[in-house]
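Input (structure):
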Protein backbone atom coordinates (compact mmCIF):
# COMPACT_ATOMS: atom_id res chain seq x y z
CA UNK A 1 0.00 0.00 0.00
CA UNK A 2 1.20 3.50 -0.68
CA UNK A 3 0.17 7.05 0.02
CA UNK A 4 -2.88 8.26 -1.93
CA UNK A 5 -0.87 11.23 -3.14
CA UNK A 6 2.02 9.11 -4.40
CA UNK A 7 2.19 7.79 -7.98
CA UNK A 8 1.65 4.12 -8.63
CA UNK A 9 4.96 2.39 -7.81
CA UNK A 10 5.05 0.75 -11.23
CA UNK A 11 4.41 3.94 -13.21
CA UNK A 12 7.20 4.54 -15.68
CA UNK A 13 9.45 7.62 -15.57
CA UNK A 14 8.14 10.34 -17.81
CA UNK A 15 4.66 8.90 -17.88
CA UNK A 16 1.75 11.26 -18.40
CA UNK A 17 -0.31 9.17 -16.02
CA UNK A 18 -1.95 10.94 -13.11
CA UNK A 19 -0.60 10.21 -9.63
CA UNK A 20 -2.61 8.00 -7.33
CA UNK A 21 -4.43 6.09 -10.09
CA UNK A 22 -5.47 2.52 -9.34
CA UNK A 23 -3.58 -0.31 -11.07
CA UNK A 24 -5.57 -3.13 -12.60
CA UNK A 25 -3.43 -6.19 -12.10
CA UNK A 26 -1.79 -7.30 -8.90
CA UNK A 27 1.99 -7.95 -8.90
CA UNK A 28 2.89 -11.45 -10.04
CA UNK A 29 4.41 -12.26 -6.65
CA UNK A 30 1.17 -11.51 -4.79
CA UNK A 31 -0.51 -14.89 -4.20
CA UNK A 32 -3.54 -13.49 -2.39
CA UNK A 33 -5.57 -12.34 -5.36
CA UNK A 34 -5.69 -8.83 -3.88
CA UNK A 35 -3.57 -6.48 -5.91
CA UNK A 36 -2.59 -3.03 -4.63
CA UNK A 37 -4.64 0.04 -5.22
CA UNK A 38 -4.34 3.71 -4.41
CA UNK A 39 -7.20 5.39 -2.60
CA UNK A 40 -8.09 8.86 -3.90
CA UNK A 41 -7.71 11.58 -1.29
CA UNK A 42 -11.44 12.30 -1.57
CA UNK A 43 -12.38 8.63 -1.54
CA UNK A 44 -13.45 6.30 1.23
CA UNK A 45 -11.24 5.57 4.22
CA UNK A 46 -11.62 2.00 5.50
CA UNK A 47 -12.94 1.44 9.03
CA UNK A 48 -14.03 -1.62 10.95
CA UNK A 49 -17.19 -3.53 10.04
CA UNK A 50 -20.24 -2.97 12.22
CA UNK A 51 -23.01 -5.34 13.19
CA UNK A 52 -26.21 -4.64 15.14
CA UNK A 53 -27.43 -5.67 18.54
CA UNK A 54 -29.65 -8.75 18.79
CA UNK A 55 -33.38 -8.38 18.58
CA UNK A 56 -33.16 -5.17 16.57
CA UNK A 57 -33.81 -4.60 12.90
CA UNK A 58 -31.19 -3.28 10.50
CA UNK A 59 -27.42 -3.36 10.92
CA UNK A 60 -25.08 -5.81 9.33
CA UNK A 61 -23.12 -3.05 7.67
CA UNK A 62 -19.54 -2.82 6.55
CA UNK A 63 -18.72 0.87 6.72
CA UNK A 64 -16.23 2.92 4.79
CA UNK A 65 -16.08 6.60 5.58
CA UNK A 66 -16.21 8.68 2.41
CA UNK A 67 -15.69 12.28 1.46
CA UNK A 68 -17.68 14.83 3.45
CA UNK A 69 -18.50 12.29 6.13
CA UNK A 70 -20.36 9.89 3.84
CA UNK A 71 -19.99 6.16 4.39
CA UNK A 72 -20.65 3.24 2.10
CA UNK A 73 -22.60 0.47 3.82
CA UNK A 74 -23.36 -2.94 2.41
CA UNK A 75 -27.08 -3.26 2.86
CA UNK A 76 -27.61 -6.53 4.72
CA UNK A 77 -29.46 -6.87 7.98
CA UNK A 78 -27.92 -8.87 10.83
CA UNK A 79 -28.97 -10.43 14.08
CA UNK A 80 -27.18 -12.31 16.80
CA UNK A 81 -23.50 -11.56 17.50
CA UNK A 82 -22.27 -8.04 16.82
CA UNK A 83 -19.13 -6.01 16.37
CA UNK A 84 -18.17 -3.27 18.79
CA UNK A 85 -19.46 0.10 17.69
CA UNK A 86 -22.44 -1.38 15.84
CA UNK A 87 -24.99 0.96 14.37
CA UNK A 88 -28.66 0.04 14.15
CA UNK A 89 -30.88 1.87 11.70
CA UNK A 90 -34.50 2.06 12.81
CA UNK A 91 -37.28 2.22 10.20
CA UNK A 92 -38.25 5.76 9.30
CA UNK A 93 -41.78 7.09 8.86
CA UNK A 94 -43.02 6.97 5.28
CA UNK A 95 -42.55 10.35 3.56
CA UNK A 96 -45.51 12.27 2.28
CA UNK A 97 -46.32 11.72 -1.38
CA UNK A 98 -44.61 14.21 -3.65
CA UNK A 99 -45.67 14.76 -7.23
CA UNK A 100 -42.84 14.60 -9.77
CA UNK A 101 -41.48 18.00 -10.72
CA UNK A 102 -42.67 19.09 -14.13
CA UNK A 103 -40.03 19.39 -16.81
CA UNK A 104 -39.78 22.50 -18.94
CA UNK A 105 -39.25 23.16 -22.61
CA UNK A 106 -38.55 26.37 -24.52
CA UNK A 107 -41.45 27.97 -26.42
CA UNK A 108 -41.99 30.96 -28.65
CA UNK A 109 -42.19 34.39 -27.00
CA UNK A 110 -41.37 36.65 -29.91
CA UNK A 111 -39.10 37.05 -32.88
CA UNK A 112 -35.65 35.56 -33.23
CA UNK A 113 -34.32 32.03 -33.15
CA UNK A 114 -32.78 30.49 -30.05
CA UNK A 115 -31.03 27.83 -32.10
CA UNK A 116 -32.82 25.02 -30.29
CA UNK A 117 -36.15 24.95 -32.09
CA UNK A 118 -37.72 27.75 -30.01
CA UNK A 119 -37.73 31.50 -30.47
CA UNK A 120 -36.85 34.31 -28.13
CA UNK A 121 -37.80 37.94 -27.61
CA UNK A 122 -34.82 40.18 -26.92
CA UNK A 123 -32.75 37.15 -25.99
CA UNK A 124 -35.23 35.90 -23.35
CA UNK A 125 -36.56 32.37 -23.76
CA UNK A 126 -39.86 31.40 -22.15
CA UNK A 127 -40.23 27.94 -20.57
CA UNK A 128 -43.51 26.09 -20.21
CA UNK A 129 -44.13 22.87 -18.23
CA UNK A 130 -44.40 19.54 -20.00
CA UNK A 131 -45.77 16.34 -18.51
CA UNK A 132 -43.18 14.16 -16.70
CA UNK A 133 -42.48 10.64 -17.92
CA UNK A 134 -45.05 8.29 -16.42
CA UNK A 135 -43.93 5.09 -14.71
CA UNK A 136 -46.52 2.43 -14.06
CA UNK A 137 -45.12 1.27 -10.73
CA UNK A 138 -48.07 -1.02 -9.89
CA UNK A 139 -47.53 -2.94 -13.13
CA UNK A 140 -43.81 -3.23 -12.44
CA UNK A 141 -44.59 -4.42 -8.91
CA UNK A 142 -46.91 -7.15 -10.17
CA UNK A 143 -44.17 -8.32 -12.53
CA UNK A 144 -41.14 -8.10 -10.24
CA UNK A 145 -42.29 -8.77 -6.67
CA UNK A 146 -42.90 -12.52 -7.26
CA UNK A 147 -39.22 -12.80 -8.26
CA UNK A 148 -37.89 -11.30 -5.01
CA UNK A 149 -37.13 -13.44 -1.96
CA UNK A 150 -36.23 -12.90 1.67
CA UNK A 151 -33.12 -14.78 2.84
CA UNK A 152 -32.59 -15.79 6.46
CA UNK A 153 -29.01 -16.70 7.28
CA UNK A 154 -28.19 -18.87 10.30
CA UNK A 155 -24.98 -20.17 11.87
CA UNK A 156 -24.19 -22.76 14.51
CA UNK A 157 -22.98 -21.41 17.85
CA UNK A 158 -19.45 -22.73 17.24
CA UNK A 159 -19.09 -20.01 14.62
CA UNK A 160 -19.27 -17.58 17.55
CA UNK A 161 -17.20 -19.65 19.93
CA UNK A 162 -14.35 -20.10 17.45
CA UNK A 163 -13.53 -16.52 16.65
CA UNK A 164 -16.47 -15.54 14.47
CA UNK A 165 -16.58 -11.70 14.26
CA UNK A 166 -18.41 -10.27 17.24
CA UNK A 167 -18.22 -13.44 19.32
CA UNK A 168 -19.59 -12.80 22.81
CA UNK A 169 -19.94 -9.09 22.15
CA UNK A 170 -22.62 -6.67 21.04
CA UNK A 171 -22.40 -3.13 19.79
CA UNK A 172 -22.72 -1.79 23.34
CA UNK A 173 -19.93 -4.08 24.61
CA UNK A 174 -22.30 -6.33 26.57
CA UNK A 175 -21.70 -10.05 26.77
CA UNK A 176 -23.76 -12.31 24.56
CA UNK A 177 -26.98 -13.25 26.33
CA UNK A 178 -30.73 -13.38 26.05
CA UNK A 179 -32.28 -13.67 22.61
CA UNK A 180 -28.93 -13.57 20.87
CA UNK A 181 -27.45 -16.55 22.68
CA UNK A 182 -26.85 -19.71 20.68
CA UNK A 183 -27.89 -22.87 22.52
CA UNK A 184 -26.73 -26.47 22.22
CA UNK A 185 -25.00 -26.15 18.85
CA UNK A 186 -28.24 -25.25 17.07
CA UNK A 187 -28.09 -22.78 14.22
CA UNK A 188 -29.16 -19.27 15.17
CA UNK A 189 -30.18 -16.42 12.82
CA UNK A 190 -27.23 -14.11 12.21
CA UNK A 191 -28.26 -12.07 9.17
CA UNK A 192 -30.92 -11.50 6.56
CA UNK A 193 -31.09 -10.06 3.10
CA UNK A 194 -32.78 -10.25 -0.26
CA UNK A 195 -32.40 -12.36 -3.37
CA UNK A 196 -33.67 -12.61 -6.93
CA UNK A 197 -35.03 -15.74 -8.65
CA UNK A 198 -33.00 -16.30 -11.81
CA UNK A 199 -34.70 -19.35 -13.30
CA UNK A 200 -37.34 -22.01 -12.78
CA UNK A 201 -34.64 -24.41 -11.52
CA UNK A 202 -34.52 -22.47 -8.24
CA UNK A 203 -31.26 -20.54 -8.64
CA UNK A 204 -31.28 -17.34 -6.59
CA UNK A 205 -28.66 -14.62 -6.84
CA UNK A 206 -27.79 -12.45 -3.85
CA UNK A 207 -24.79 -10.68 -2.35
CA UNK A 208 -21.90 -12.58 -0.86
CA UNK A 209 -21.94 -10.41 2.25
CA UNK A 210 -25.51 -11.56 2.90
CA UNK A 211 -24.56 -15.24 3.13
CA UNK A 212 -20.90 -15.25 4.18
CA UNK A 213 -21.62 -15.49 7.92
CA UNK A 214 -23.92 -18.47 7.59
CA UNK A 215 -23.88 -22.23 7.65
CA UNK A 216 -27.54 -22.68 6.71
CA UNK A 217 -30.04 -20.66 4.71
CA UNK A 218 -33.80 -20.36 4.37
CA UNK A 219 -35.50 -18.60 1.48
CA UNK A 220 -38.99 -17.11 1.83
CA UNK A 221 -40.84 -16.40 -1.41
CA UNK A 222 -43.10 -13.39 -1.85
CA UNK A 223 -46.18 -15.58 -1.45
CA UNK A 224 -44.99 -16.84 1.95
CA UNK A 225 -43.64 -20.25 0.96
CA UNK A 226 -40.27 -21.04 2.55
CA UNK A 227 -37.54 -23.50 1.63
CA UNK A 228 -34.14 -24.59 2.86
CA UNK A 229 -31.48 -23.39 0.45
CA UNK A 230 -28.04 -24.62 -0.56
CA UNK A 231 -25.15 -22.23 -1.18
CA UNK A 232 -23.72 -23.11 -4.59
CA UNK A 233 -20.89 -20.58 -4.60
CA UNK A 234 -19.76 -17.06 -3.86
CA UNK A 235 -17.41 -14.55 -5.45
CA UNK A 236 -15.51 -12.02 -3.35
CA UNK A 237 -14.40 -9.85 -6.28
CA UNK A 238 -17.98 -8.94 -7.21
CA UNK A 239 -19.71 -9.59 -3.86
CA UNK A 240 -22.16 -12.02 -5.47
CA UNK A 241 -23.41 -15.46 -4.44
CA UNK A 242 -25.92 -18.03 -5.69
CA UNK A 243 -28.31 -20.14 -3.60
CA UNK A 244 -30.53 -22.98 -4.85
CA UNK A 245 -33.92 -24.15 -3.68
CA UNK A 246 -36.18 -26.96 -4.87
CA UNK A 247 -39.58 -25.40 -5.48
CA UNK A 248 -42.35 -25.39 -8.05
CA UNK A 249 -44.10 -22.44 -9.68
CA UNK A 250 -41.23 -19.98 -9.39
CA UNK A 251 -41.26 -16.60 -11.13
CA UNK A 252 -37.86 -15.91 -12.69
CA UNK A 253 -37.04 -12.27 -13.29
CA UNK A 254 -36.58 -10.95 -16.82
CA UNK A 255 -33.05 -9.74 -17.52
CA UNK A 256 -32.49 -6.29 -18.99
CA UNK A 257 -29.37 -4.31 -19.85
CA UNK A 258 -27.59 -1.59 -17.93
CA UNK A 259 -25.76 -0.52 -21.10
CA UNK A 260 -28.87 1.10 -22.58
CA UNK A 261 -29.61 3.14 -19.46
CA UNK A 262 -29.00 6.86 -19.34
CA UNK A 263 -28.59 9.07 -16.31
CA UNK A 264 -32.06 10.20 -15.31
CA UNK A 265 -33.83 7.02 -16.43
CA UNK A 266 -36.29 5.59 -13.93
CA UNK A 267 -34.95 2.82 -11.72
CA UNK A 268 -36.99 0.79 -9.24
CA UNK A 269 -35.51 -1.04 -6.25
CA UNK A 270 -37.31 -4.12 -4.92
CA UNK A 271 -36.07 -5.98 -1.84
CA UNK A 272 -36.71 -6.95 1.76
CA UNK A 273 -35.37 -4.00 3.80
CA UNK A 274 -34.77 -4.07 7.54
CA UNK A 275 -35.94 -7.67 7.79
CA UNK A 276 -39.57 -6.51 7.63
CA UNK A 277 -42.20 -9.22 7.38
CA UNK A 278 -44.99 -9.23 4.82
CA UNK A 279 -43.17 -9.46 1.49
CA UNK A 280 -40.85 -7.29 -0.61
CA UNK A 281 -40.86 -3.50 -0.72
CA UNK A 282 -40.68 -1.31 -3.82
CA UNK A 283 -39.22 2.18 -4.22
CA UNK A 284 -38.92 4.38 -7.29
CA UNK A 285 -36.03 6.65 -8.22
CA UNK A 286 -33.71 7.49 -11.08
CA UNK A 287 -30.34 6.35 -12.31
CA UNK A 288 -28.07 8.94 -10.71
CA UNK A 289 -24.70 7.87 -12.16
CA UNK A 290 -22.91 4.99 -13.86
CA UNK A 291 -19.44 3.53 -13.56
CA UNK A 292 -19.02 4.24 -9.85
CA UNK A 293 -16.11 2.74 -7.93
CA UNK A 294 -17.36 1.64 -4.50
CA UNK A 295 -15.09 0.51 -1.69
CA UNK A 296 -17.03 -1.54 0.86
CA UNK A 297 -14.15 -2.57 3.12
CA UNK A 298 -10.36 -2.45 3.21
CA UNK A 299 -9.93 -5.18 0.62
CA UNK A 300 -13.04 -4.93 -1.54
CA UNK A 301 -13.59 -2.47 -4.37
CA UNK A 302 -16.58 -2.91 -6.66
CA UNK A 303 -16.19 -1.44 -10.15
CA UNK A 304 -18.67 -0.12 -12.69
CA UNK A 305 -21.48 0.20 -10.15
CA UNK A 306 -24.83 1.82 -10.91
CA UNK A 307 -25.92 4.63 -8.58
CA UNK A 308 -29.58 5.31 -7.83
CA UNK A 309 -31.64 7.42 -5.45
CA UNK A 310 -34.34 4.75 -5.21
CA UNK A 311 -34.54 3.92 -1.51
CA UNK A 312 -32.20 1.06 -0.59
CA UNK A 313 -32.02 0.17 3.09
CA UNK A 314 -30.15 -2.36 5.16
CA UNK A 315 -31.56 -5.78 4.38
CA UNK A 316 -32.06 -4.82 0.74
CA UNK A 317 -28.72 -6.33 -0.27
CA UNK A 318 -29.23 -8.88 -3.01
CA UNK A 319 -32.49 -7.30 -4.16
CA UNK A 320 -33.36 -6.16 -7.66
CA UNK A 321 -32.84 -2.85 -9.40
CA UNK A 322 -35.12 -2.85 -12.44
CA UNK A 323 -35.96 -0.51 -15.28
CA UNK A 324 -39.36 0.90 -16.27
CA UNK A 325 -40.31 -2.42 -17.86
CA UNK A 326 -39.44 -4.41 -14.75
CA UNK A 327 -36.31 -5.92 -16.31
CA UNK A 328 -33.35 -6.57 -14.04
CA UNK A 329 -30.53 -4.06 -14.55
CA UNK A 330 -28.64 -4.61 -11.29
CA UNK A 331 -28.42 -6.24 -7.87
CA UNK A 332 -28.71 -3.74 -5.01
CA UNK A 333 -25.55 -3.97 -2.94
CA UNK A 334 -24.62 -0.88 -0.90
CA UNK A 335 -25.91 2.45 0.37
CA UNK A 336 -24.31 5.74 1.32
CA UNK A 337 -24.80 6.72 4.95
CA UNK A 338 -23.74 9.84 6.83
CA UNK A 339 -24.11 10.84 10.47
CA UNK A 340 -27.77 11.71 9.82
CA UNK A 341 -28.66 8.42 8.15
CA UNK A 342 -29.11 7.02 4.66
CA UNK A 343 -28.50 9.74 2.09
CA UNK A 344 -30.33 8.48 -0.98
CA UNK A 345 -27.13 7.17 -2.55
CA UNK A 346 -27.53 3.50 -3.42
CA UNK A 347 -25.35 1.23 -5.54
CA UNK A 348 -26.15 -1.81 -7.65
CA UNK A 349 -23.99 -4.35 -9.48
CA UNK A 350 -24.75 -4.23 -13.24
CA UNK A 351 -26.76 -7.15 -14.61
CA UNK A 352 -24.04 -7.96 -17.14
CA UNK A 353 -21.64 -8.75 -14.29
CA UNK A 354 -24.38 -10.56 -12.36
CA UNK A 355 -25.20 -12.89 -15.26
CA UNK A 356 -21.55 -13.75 -15.94
CA UNK A 357 -20.75 -14.50 -12.30
CA UNK A 358 -24.01 -16.35 -11.61
CA UNK A 359 -23.53 -18.59 -14.65
CA UNK A 360 -20.05 -19.53 -13.44
CA UNK A 361 -21.16 -20.14 -9.85
CA UNK A 362 -24.01 -22.36 -11.03
CA UNK A 363 -21.75 -24.33 -13.37
CA UNK A 364 -18.58 -24.56 -11.30
CA UNK A 365 -19.26 -23.33 -7.76
CA UNK A 366 -16.70 -20.58 -8.24
CA UNK A 367 -16.17 -17.61 -10.52
CA UNK A 368 -13.02 -16.42 -12.25
CA UNK A 369 -11.62 -12.91 -12.15
CA UNK A 370 -10.43 -12.23 -15.67
CA UNK A 371 -7.39 -10.06 -16.22
CA UNK A 372 -4.61 -9.04 -18.54
CA UNK A 373 -1.74 -9.44 -16.09
CA UNK A 374 -0.56 -5.83 -16.10
CA UNK A 375 -0.15 -2.93 -13.73
CA UNK A 376 -0.50 0.64 -14.84
CA UNK A 377 -2.26 3.95 -14.48
CA UNK A 378 -4.73 6.19 -16.24
CA UNK A 379 -2.91 8.10 -18.99
CA UNK A 380 -3.59 11.78 -19.59
CA UNK A 381 -3.09 14.05 -22.59
CA UNK A 382 -2.42 17.77 -22.44
CA UNK A 383 -5.11 20.10 -23.78
CA UNK A 384 -4.55 23.33 -25.66
CA UNK A 385 -6.18 25.33 -22.86
CA UNK A 386 -3.71 24.02 -20.28
CA UNK A 387 -5.91 21.25 -18.92
CA UNK A 388 -5.55 17.48 -19.05
CA UNK A 389 -7.96 14.74 -20.13
CA UNK A 390 -7.85 10.96 -19.54
CA UNK A 391 -6.98 9.12 -22.72
CA UNK A 392 -6.50 5.45 -21.81
CA UNK A 393 -4.54 3.09 -19.59
CA UNK A 394 -0.77 3.23 -19.74
CA UNK A 395 0.89 -0.07 -18.93
CA UNK A 396 3.52 0.25 -16.24
CA UNK A 397 4.57 -3.40 -16.21
CA UNK A 398 3.59 -6.55 -18.05
CA UNK A 399 3.82 -9.63 -15.86
CA UNK A 400 5.98 -12.37 -17.31
CA UNK A 401 3.90 -15.24 -18.65
CA UNK A 402 0.62 -13.32 -18.29
CA UNK A 403 -2.12 -12.99 -20.88
CA UNK A 404 -0.76 -9.57 -21.83
CA UNK A 405 2.76 -10.96 -22.19
CA UNK A 406 1.60 -13.81 -24.42
CA UNK A 407 -0.33 -11.38 -26.61
CA UNK A 408 2.66 -9.08 -27.10
CA UNK A 409 1.65 -6.08 -24.97
CA UNK A 410 4.59 -4.00 -23.80
CA UNK A 411 5.42 -1.56 -21.03
CA UNK A 412 4.32 2.00 -21.89
CA UNK A 413 1.61 0.82 -24.30
CA UNK A 414 -1.61 2.80 -23.84
CA UNK A 415 -4.85 0.80 -24.05
CA UNK A 416 -7.59 2.99 -25.57
CA UNK A 417 -10.33 0.50 -26.57
CA UNK A 418 -11.58 -2.97 -25.63
CA UNK A 419 -13.68 -4.63 -28.34
CA UNK A 420 -14.27 -1.22 -29.86
CA UNK A 421 -15.47 0.36 -26.59
CA UNK A 422 -13.45 3.41 -25.57
CA UNK A 423 -11.47 3.08 -22.35
CA UNK A 424 -10.34 6.36 -20.78
CA UNK A 425 -9.40 5.28 -17.26
CA UNK A 426 -8.12 2.32 -15.28
CA UNK A 427 -11.51 2.01 -13.55
CA UNK A 428 -13.24 1.71 -16.93
CA UNK A 429 -10.82 -1.03 -17.99
CA UNK A 430 -11.45 -3.01 -14.80
CA UNK A 431 -15.23 -2.53 -15.18
CA UNK A 432 -15.16 -3.96 -18.70
CA UNK A 433 -13.01 -6.92 -17.73
CA UNK A 434 -15.32 -7.72 -14.80
CA UNK A 435 -17.90 -8.69 -17.41
CA UNK A 436 -15.59 -11.31 -18.90
CA UNK A 437 -14.51 -14.76 -17.81
CA UNK A 438 -10.98 -16.07 -17.86
CA UNK A 439 -10.41 -17.61 -21.28
CA UNK A 440 -12.51 -15.03 -23.12
CA UNK A 441 -10.90 -13.37 -26.13
CA UNK A 442 -10.90 -9.57 -26.38
CA UNK A 443 -9.51 -7.18 -28.96
CA UNK A 444 -7.51 -4.23 -27.67
CA UNK A 445 -6.65 -1.01 -29.46
CA UNK A 446 -3.25 0.10 -28.21
CA UNK A 447 -1.20 3.23 -28.84
CA UNK A 448 2.46 2.40 -29.27
CA UNK A 449 5.05 4.83 -30.53
CA UNK A 450 2.41 7.25 -31.77
CA UNK A 451 0.48 4.68 -33.83
CA UNK A 452 -2.57 2.54 -33.09
CA UNK A 453 -2.25 -1.24 -33.07
CA UNK A 454 -4.87 -3.96 -32.71
CA UNK A 455 -3.94 -6.81 -30.39
CA UNK A 456 -6.03 -9.87 -29.56
CA UNK A 457 -5.72 -11.18 -25.99
CA UNK A 458 -7.04 -14.35 -24.37
CA UNK A 459 -7.76 -13.22 -20.83
CA UNK A 460 -6.07 -14.95 -17.93
CA UNK A 461 -7.33 -15.52 -14.40
CA UNK A 462 -6.39 -13.35 -11.44
CA UNK A 463 -8.17 -15.61 -8.96
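Output (sequence):
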Amino acid sequence: MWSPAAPHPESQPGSTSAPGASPFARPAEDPTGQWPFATPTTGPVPTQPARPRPGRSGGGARRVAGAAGLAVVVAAAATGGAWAGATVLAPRPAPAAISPAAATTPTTTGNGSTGNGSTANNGITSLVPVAPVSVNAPTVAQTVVPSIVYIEVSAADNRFQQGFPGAGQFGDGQSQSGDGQAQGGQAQPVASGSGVVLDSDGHIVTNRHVVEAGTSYRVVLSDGRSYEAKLLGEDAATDLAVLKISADNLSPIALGSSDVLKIGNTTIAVGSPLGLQGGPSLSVGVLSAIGREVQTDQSTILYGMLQTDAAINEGSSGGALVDEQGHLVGITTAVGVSSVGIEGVGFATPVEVVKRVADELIAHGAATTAGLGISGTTAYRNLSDGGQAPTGVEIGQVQTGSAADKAGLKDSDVITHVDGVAVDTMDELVSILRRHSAGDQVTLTVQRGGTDQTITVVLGSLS
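Notes: Confidence is low (pLDDT under 50) at residues 1-70, 79-126, 159-183. The chain has six helices and 26 strands.
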